[in-house]
Specification:
The chain is of the alpha/beta class and 358 residues long. It contains 14 helices and eleven strands. It has a six-stranded parallel β-sheet with strand order 8-7-6-9-10-11. A five-stranded parallel β-sheet has the order 3-2-1-4-5, covered by helices on one side. α1 packs across α11 and α3 (61-72) packs across α4. It is globular, with a radius of gyration of 20 Å. 44% of the residues are buried. The mean pLDDT is 92.
Amino acid sequence: MKIGILTHYNVSSHGALLQMYALQEVLKEWGHDVFILTYSRNMDFVDEETRKRFSGSLSNIPYYIKCYMKANGVGCLFYQRKKQRVLADFRNSNFEMLPYTESGKLDCVVVGADEVFSLENGVNIMMFGHGITASKIIAYAPSCGQTDIERIDRFGCRELIREGLNKFCALSARDLGTKKVIDTLIGKNVPVVCDPALLYKFQKQTHKTHKKYIVVYSYQSNFKDKERIDSIKAYAKTTNCALYSVGVYYKWCDRQINCDPLKMISIFAQAEAVITDTFHGTIAAYIAHTPMAVFVREDNNVKLEHLLSIIGIEDRRCSDPQSLLTVLNRDIDFTFVDEKVEQLRKVGIDYLKAALEK
């Protein structure tokens, strides 16, 4: 079967590429030909400043100089440009692209995962099935992010989204917030399935390194709070560990690492701990079987709180900088977490196979 994956493919995010790679590999293992569907991302609901932040265009160099070099030094500017090249190389080496407008050449389109149903930046109508001409459309683990019914109505999108969702022959959700939105819009009880990065079995990593270090993984605009930074640096000092920022340029860390998503997992695996506030940063730490401390933000609490709950690591949540020491000094039973994830994996695989065979 020829299958297209419709997700956020062209973003400066290791997590987005990691889940896209995972879903592709699962489908390839089942013998399918897989394509990543390209499109222009809608940014109607954001200001010009945010639009520039999401673009890697050379025309936005003045913006990068202002936001990266001025705020974080010239090293950050060069780091961000290199990061875009590294992630672009990963996309070019691992995926075959096809415009979504040519989806009629495919047998099926899988929408998901990641925040493909989010209206934070704008309405991407193809994510809701509009303009897709393949004979079958299914959704695997889509997320609305922080988008709820109130926001959908505020943007006047209820009928547009409802009509689109009714085109799908199989629907699922990645978190309970998304499930509530879908259930409300179309009056159906859709299943919750795990992110593709949990669905796919990545290669086991070996913990071998000559130097002890702790990974800090987030976004450039996060981890700015001085109290949090001081608590991270203090913990690293007490454990005699260096601090590595991965996928992000934090000049207060000892080293800033640029790498692709698969290399990121191996770097996580050799770390003493991972400190993050992201959904896929948490998943990558689990894949690497490295103890993690997770700060939950107000703008990602729906999906991240759900993730911590379903894989049984609620106690890895940091409520404030002072709790960091308590969390990282607490043991984590990865055997227990593996069992939880295996149960989630079975549900996800059963759903995806049934949807493809429908």
